[in-house]
Write a structure and sequence with these properties.
Elements (H helix, E strand, L loop, with lengths): L1 H26 L5 H23 L1 E2 L4 E2 L12 H9 L11 H17 L6 E4 L5 E5 L2 H14 L7 E6 L3 E6 L10 E9 L5 E8 L4 E8 L2 E6 L4 E5 L4 E11 L6 E3 L3 E5 L1
Antiparallel strand pairs: 1-2, 3-4, 5-6, 7-8, 8-11, 9-10, 9-12, 12-13, 12-14
Length: about 260
């Protein structure tokens, strides 16, 4: 098993470096004959490895690999992105729509597994973990992959937030984000004087524009910066709360939370 893992790591390292050379070679002008010959040899290696990379891709989850999934397993998307964009008569994968779908799904899997700060759990193949960290090597392959395919990305974007301080966005033409943010009422606390404190949790890969809180279908105002907390004093009886979050995408997608009903004595 260790020999297999080492072989996979070496192949992945080789593919990443070959892909980087080919990606740079695409933009080079007036290439000398020896450089062209070198590029052709690299391309043959890349094209030969593409089917092997695809065999370990799960279209249901968007994950690469057959064992415990690591975020770095998604680094395989980068050589696939180079294969998709490198035009050559020897490259059967150039502009292959199925390959494009695989690359996009691989990015979606990273989005799904990341927390609100853009971190992933540092997993190891032996099942152990080192907690959540920012993985620059994964960001690097991801960003480079999407920068190569962005002109052909239908209805897809990459908006990468890192601890709410830095973000990078790559989008294909005609992109629209049609997914609303995650939103839930995290806490409802009733004090002895009948004052109610409500805390809402909301996040979205594009960021949160605002969160609104409603009590019995009447707005209690909006918050644009976390923490999203309200305090009110409803009358005696039953009252139902819900929140509505709006993301920062151009489409301003909204989503409503589940209802929370309380009784005031």
């Amino acid at each position: 098993m260790r020999q297999i893992s080492i072989k996979i790591i070496l192949i992945s390292f080789l593919m990443t470096n070959i892909s980087s050379v080919l990606a740079l070679a695409k933009s080079a002008k007036n290439k000398p004959a020896e450089v062209l010959c070198y590029n052709e040899r690299l391309l043959k290696v890349l094209v030969k490895q593409v089917p092997k990379l695809l065999r370990v891709f799960d279209p249901q989850t968007g994950h690469f690999g057959r064992e415990i999934w690591l975020s770095t397993d998604q680094n395989r998307m980068y050589p696939l992105a180079v294969a998709y964009t490198y035009q050559s008569q020897d490259n059967a994968f150039y502009q292959d729509k199925k390959l494009l779908e695989v690359i996009i799904k691989a990015g979606d899997a990273l989005i799904k597994d990341a927390d609100e700060k853009g971190r992933w759990v540092f997993r190891k193949k032996d099942g152990s973990t080192w907690g959540k960290i920012w993985m620059s090597w994964t960001y690097s392959r991801w960003i480079r992959s999407y920068s190569l395919i962005q002109d052909d990305m239908p209805n897809k974007t990459l908006t990468l937030h890192i601890d709410s301080l830095t973000y990078l966005e790559l989008a294909g033409p005609g992109y629209h984000d049609d997914t609303g943010p995650a939103v839930e009422i995290d806490m409802v606390k009733i004090r002895e004087d009948s004052r109610v404190t409500v805390k809402v949790r909301a996040n979205d890969k594009c960021g949160i524009q605002k969160v609104e809180l409603y009590c019995d279908d009447k707005t209690l105002g909006e918050r644009i910066i976390a923490p999203y907390v309200w305090s009110c004093r409803p009358s005696s009886g039953y009252h139902t709360f819900y929140a509505v979050a709006t993301d920062k995408s151009p489409q301003r997608n909204c989503r409503k939370s589940f209802l929370r009903t309380i009784e005031i004595p």
